[in-house]
Design goal:
Elements: E1 2-8, E2 16-22, E3 25-33, H1 38-48, E4 54-58, E5 63-65, E6 72-74, H2 76-82, E7 90-91, H3 94-111, E8 120-123, H4 130-138, E9 142-145, H5 147-152, H6 161-175, H7 198-202, E10 206-208, H8 211-217, E11 226-229, H9 234-242, E12 247-250, E13 254-255, E14 258-259, H10 262-273, H11 282-292, E15 297-300
Parallel strand pairs: 1-3, 1-4, 4-7, 8-9, 8-10, 10-11, 11-12
Antiparallel strand pairs: 2-3, 5-6, 12-15, 13-14
Helix pairs in contact: 3-4
């Protein structure tokens, strides 16, 4: 049996374990949260190093990019965390995010009756989800990029991808040197939210991006909206339903009641491929997705 372990700086209340069969192979998938404790995260990596087939880095990324095909920057603290790993390969999701999320939006446009054309889409954090951004643009959405809002707590939306690329090329070299807690909500912060930026949600038809980023600021009323995200628990799904969300689309499949993060899903694809992460390119991942019969999770929560 293949074993994939996601270790995250996020809340342990989101932990989950599932056993699935993919392409005739049994895979045990587990997510462990460390409640923002970097030291504990490093200890877990050391404890399970060599005992699982693939690690998945969660609650942070290892890399950020200045554009869809822009320069890659390494987050310093993330690199320090994974430096303790000596045997097991590790992925952070960036290997498949671009192709997977762009393909998901294309699938929704071509294979469902959900009309994205002309809708206003708020993408909370774009610098690690350029595939999602490009997919929504190609689908005819009017974009609002919320990177300054989500990452820097500056209530200034960006409406043009080229403008965002220019901003990213300036701020990312600074951001990657900051402690992770200043870049992403970790630990208990993932369980709290306020609606001080609710006006940006109110004005959008589609809310897209990492679920934790979305949940930080989403208002109580989300009637008729489409949410495109990745990591949701059954409790998150019920919460979105209670807020009036019409459609939930996740860019990763549901395994026994839980949509894991892109990092864990990439780890799963690496495990069943039998190859090392560096041996797999974008086309390899697309081929694996096709072989597994992957389809995004599309759930109508309210009429």
């Amino acid at each position: 049996m293949k074993k994939v372990m996601g270790i995250s700086l996020g809340s342990s209340t989101r932990d989950h374990k599932a056993k699935v069969e993919i392409l005739g192979q049994e895979v045990e998938i587990e997510r462990k949260g460390t409640d923002g404790d970097v030291k504990k995260m490093m200890q877990l990596y050391q404890e399970f190093d060599g005992k699982v087939d693939v690690f998945a880095l969660g609650g942070t990324d290892l890399y950020l990019y200045s554009g869809p095909r822009g320069k890659r920057y390494t987050i310093r603290e993330s690199a320090r965390i994974v430096s303790v790993i000596k045997k097991t390969p590790i992925v952070d999701g960036t290997g498949i995010k671009y192709v997977l999320e762009k393909d998901v939006v294309r699938y929704v446009s071509q294979n469902t009756d959900i009309n994205l054309q002309g809708k206003k889409a708020l993408l909370l954090i774009t610098v690690d989800r350029f595939g999602l951004a490009e997919g929504l643009i190609e689908a005819g959405c009017k974009m609002v990029f919320g990177d300054l809002i989500s990452c820097l707590n500056i209530p200034i939306p960006i409406y043009n991808l080229s403008t965002l690329n220019k901003v990213a090329s300036v701020i990312i070299p600074i951001l990657v040197n900051l402690p992770i807690k200043y870049l992403y909500p970790t630990g208990k912060k993932q369980e709290t939210s306020n609606s001080k930026y609710g006006r940006f949600f109110d004005d959008a038809d589609i809310i897209a991006g990492d679920y934790i980023a979305i949940s930080q600021y989403m208002p109580q009323k989300m009637n008729g909206k489409i949410v495109i995200t990745n990591t949701v628990t059954s409790k998150n799904v019920q919460d979105l339903k209670d807020r009036g969300v019409q459609y939930l689309i996740t860019t990763t499949p549901q395994f026994q009641g839980r949509s894991f993060g892109t990092n864990v899903y990439q780890g799963t694809l690496v495990a069943i491929s039998g190859k090392k992460p560096e041996e797999l390119g974008e086309q390899d991942y697309l081929d694996l997705l096709k072989k597994t019969g992957f389809k995004p999770r599309i759930e109508k929560l309210n009429n």
